[in-house]
User: Which sequence fits this backbone?
């Protein structure tokens, strides 16, 4: 895992970083030395969003850094600095007052991420001296969680199959003294997880359901479910090569769920945590499930398989049914469920679905506070009959080649009895560098959900 480049003690040689909005640039530069004015003019630096100006000393070293915020940047903009600055120690000496100091530190640390399992990084990451107002422990906890999710998603399927993901989940449970259970292969049938078994039985590594429980039994019950398809060929409804290329990331829901669960345990959030991961590879062999098959589920509903490439919702059906047996106070699921979500909102914004207005409002607030973009989508009841099957209780697709993400959410809702539930149709991938988000695997919705849980659990306890 990438080292976290945050220093909690002063560094005398730290290079100052002055962050400015475009609207305040003229007033600020007007009172500076002519040499700095000429340098800025030569580089056409006017505090435009994301622009960096290195100001040299007379000896030729970097004396200070000017960083442009444009007029609308969030604190996550500071993630661009750790992606672009030379290796050295830095300190933020000026930033807009409305920016949260801890979020600035998180952005810096997240921008420094590099996946190094197979290829070392070319240079050491620039380090940030955590200034006044930074909760260094919180910043490190969040960064560790996001980096873990990124590492899991970035690891190719030959090294991150069901067995490897199983091992990482057990490792996370063991380090926090949590209870770990695994139902593997035929045990899935013996314990009534028929859908997970059906989807994963064609692969060399057996399908499984992993469960972690942690915390006091009397604490608020938080249950997190994550889709763990370690590689998705599409099954017999096989994907084209372009659609299959990134399918190592189809376990991104499990990566985010596991990382959020580990964050909850490491930060000792006062909850009763249940983490449930259905883990399979959607492979092709003589034992693969087929289009047209009717498969039972843990909840008792029968499902006609209309398309084997809509397998994520199938394994989640058993996992969500199990989750609801524990009567959670809040249930969250994460899944790289549909390409339709990307068509609707692109790679940066995560759609979420919930029928609970309070949870929706809490997530909207947390999204803004964490600068982790979420957007609520409708569970449109009128579309539900489109999933009717003539021979089973329902099928795993809708009738139309539209509203794909909504159909996914509606399908999952059929297996949820928890009163407070949200489904996140995540991408788990950043196609090109963004501030604080290097290209590759990503942990969409993790930081917003962590912030939401803090608001609901800690702030509610403090107000009593």
Assistant:
């Amino acid at each position: 895992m990438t080292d976290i480049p945050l220093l909690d003690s002063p560094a005398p040689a730290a290079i100052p970083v002055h962050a400015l909005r475009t609207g305040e640039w003229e007033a600020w530069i007007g009172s500076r030395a002519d040499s700095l004015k000429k340098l800025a003019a030569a580089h056409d630096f006017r505090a435009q969003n994301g622009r960096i100006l290195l100001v040299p000393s007379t000896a030729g070293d970097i004396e200070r850094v000017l960083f442009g915020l444009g007029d609308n940047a969030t604190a996550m903009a500071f993630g661009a600095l750790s992606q672009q600055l030379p290796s050295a120690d830095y300190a933020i000496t000026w930033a807009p007052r409305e920016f949260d100091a801890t979020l600035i530190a998180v952005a810096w640390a997240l921008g420094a991420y590099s996946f190094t399992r197979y290829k070392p990084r070319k240079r050491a990451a620039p380090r940030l001296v955590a200034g006044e107002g930074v909760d260094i422990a919180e910043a490190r906890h969040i960064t560790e969680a996001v980096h873990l999710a990124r590492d899991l998603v970035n690891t190719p399927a030959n090294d991150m199959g069901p067995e490897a993901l199983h091992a990482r989940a057990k490792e996370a449970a063991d380090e926090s003294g949590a209870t770990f259970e695994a139902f593997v292969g035929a045990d899935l049938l013996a314990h009534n997880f028929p859908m997970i078994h059906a989807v994963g039985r064609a692969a060399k590594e057996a399908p499984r359901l992993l469960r972690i429980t942690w915390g006091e039994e009397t604490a608020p019950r938080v249950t997190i479910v994550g889709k763990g398809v370690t590689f998705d060929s599409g099954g017999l409804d096989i994907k084209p090569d372009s659609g299959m290329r990134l399918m190592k990331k189809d376990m991104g829901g499990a990566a985010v769920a596991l990382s959020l669960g580990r964050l909850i345990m490491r930060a000792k959030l006062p909850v009763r945590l249940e983490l449930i991961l259905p883990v399979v590879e959607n492979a092709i062999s003589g034992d693969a499930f087929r289009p047209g098959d009717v498969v039972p589920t843990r909840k008792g509903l029968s499902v006609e398989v209309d398309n084997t490439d809509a397998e994520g919702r199938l394994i989640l059906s058993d996992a969500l049914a199990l989750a609801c047996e524990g009567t959670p106070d809040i249930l969250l699921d994460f899944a790289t469920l549909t390409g339709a979500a990307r068509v609707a909102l692109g790679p940066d914004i995560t759609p979420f679905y919930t029928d609970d207005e309070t949870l929706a409002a809490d997530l909207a607030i947390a999204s803004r506070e964490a600068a982790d973009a979420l957007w609520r989508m409708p569970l449109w009841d009128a579309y539900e009959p489109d999933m009717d099957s003539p021979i089973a209780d329902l099928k795993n697709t809708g009738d139309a080649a539209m509203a794909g993400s909504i159909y996914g959410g509606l399908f999952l809702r059929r297996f949820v009895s928890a009163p407070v539930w949200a489904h996140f149709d995540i991408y788990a991938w950043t196609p090109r560098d963004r501030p604080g988000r290097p290209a590759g695997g990503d942990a969409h919705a993790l930081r917003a959900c962590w912030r939401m849980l803090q608001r609901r659990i800690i702030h509610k306890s403090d107000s009593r």
The mean pLDDT is 97. Residues 136-154 form the longest helix (19 residues).
